[in-house]
Amino acid sequence: MKTMKRLHFKIAAIALLFILSSLIADAKDIQKTYTWKYNVSKDGSVSMENYDCNIIVHTWDKGETELKLTIDAETRTDEDAAVLDKFLQNLKFSNSQASVAFSDRFWVSRTTIMNRSTMKLAGGETVSLISMELSGELWIPAACRFSLNSKYSQVNMDDFAGSLILNLYNDDFYGKSLSTPVELNDKYSTIEFGDIKGLRADIYNTKFNAGNSGDVSFESKYSRVTMVSCGKLTANSYNDKFNIPKTGDISFTAKYTDLKTESSGNAELDMYNGTAVMTKIKDVKLTSKYCEYQIADAGICNILSSYNDKLTFSTLNSISIAESKYTVYTIEFLSKSVDEKDGYNDKFTVSGTGKDFGRLALNGKYISSSVRLPGNTNYRFKADVKYADFDIDESSFKPVVKIIEGSNVKYDAIKGTESEKMPVIEVNGYQISLKILEK
Amino acid sequence: MSRRLEEYLRKHRASLDVESPDDYAVWERVEERLSEKSKRRSLYPVRDRWIAVRNIAAVAIIMFCVGYITKDIINSVAVRKSVTLSSIDRNLGNREKEYRRMVNLRIQEVQQLQGNNNFLVAELFSELAELDSIYIQSLTDLKVLGPNDKVINTIFDTYEQKIRLLELIILETNKTKNHEDDEKIAL
Description:
The complex is a heterodimer of chains A (439) and B (187). Chain A is mainly β. Chain A has a domain at 25-148. Chain A contains two helices and 39 strands. Chain B is mostly helical. Chain B is 85% helix and 0% strand. Chain B contains seven helices and no strands. Chain B has helices spanning 3-11, 13-16, 23-41, 45-83, 90-112, 119-145, 149-186. The longest helix of chain B has 39 residues, at 45-83. The relative contact order of chain B is 0.07. The model of chain B has no long low-confidence stretch (mean pLDDT 79). The interface between A and B is medium-sized, with 25 and 25 residues.
């Protein structure tokens, strides 16, 4: 019995010794910079696979590329440090005169539990780490084709004149000017550029900010895009916010998206449940549902289809509506005309018209409208409405035709002196209310 | 006592009735027995070797199984530890729990809604599926990087986004229903 007890005691003591020795094993620091340098033609291809490593990308005029990788790690044992050091010293990257491919993701697998990492290196050796931080500097030819795949890193990049492809995930990317268009794929990153030549982006939950740009194209979701200016803006957007003060023409398909511009060319908007705030825009073509628009100054507005929208124009040249339901149109100043072909339960308020005002024509059902004209305006009033509700000063009219048959009203009247190009106000349909106010 | 034994004792009484045992005879007999035994063992050497191999293999298999099961248990515990935020920080765990509760509440609300064939709602459901894949990716990254702020933020973002999408599904379903009703009334 005594012998057994002794045996148990010995086993327990040995186990404890093992545990203690493993816990108090000497940790080893590595702080070292490794360098790889390869020749590559100036218009060659350089790619970088970057993972959890803050990196600065420099450009130069040389026909070579160089990566300096600094590792600051604490390993569990001296042996781990030696293995890692030897591995990085012997690490080679695929290279030729035409292309070089770097990667700082040099492990096959890595697991971090309770702040302790176990890293399996290519070749099968395993290294235990208490901590590891990587940072790097990369030099590439200024006009090469550069492709960066990066994750969980901060990337700073110099001016670049070559072609650039970025695949980012959860990065902070700060780039300067680019003299060729960039191709961008990203999720969850913050991306900033100086002036860029152009952009084709597929982004998801990205904060994108740039200076002046050429034509840009976005396939975007849950993102915020701000730019100083761009050429043509093309976007297929979902739940984004775009703020670009100055744009060229716009082709915008969006759901749950907000768009803000100050000065734009022609716009073609197909929006659902979003807002557009635009200061000045040339002509606009619109297909819309559940949206709100505030446009300060617009040329010709052509509405292909509108459903439950709210459109407010400060100044509008003319508006033509093919199909509209439950939409509220507020026009503070209308230069030329309103022409609704098929309306349903719409509301129109025109608060002012100019000397070029030519036509207000509403066709449909359940339309409510009011228009304010200068007091001295001569115009023709025509109506063919069932259940009409008109608030007009008939005393100033010279009726040409006025027929009331039950609930049907037919009107053709003239205010002032008839002329060939005199403005026409015409309403046709079912249950239409119209108020004509004169200053 | 049997008759045979009685007879045997009567016949050999003289030789058996001695004061001290015949040591030589005893040892001779023991030696005979031992040599018989060793002869018997060496009769089937191949079989004996196979039995030994079988026993060793059985022990090895048992040890392998025990090792495998132990490793599996340790790994599963480790994986479970690595993929939950609560293993990093209790507050993070509580926050995740609260998000899960909110998501589940909205899922229940969505389940109570009548089926909607609206393509927008279908699109919103596909967005939810994409969020699930991002969430799984983030957990994998959490396992690689440990408690990284960016990964943790992404995980919480997927929850917030999920809540927003579920609310949109409810809104869109109700919106369609309300406008269908409005139009019926108007007609």
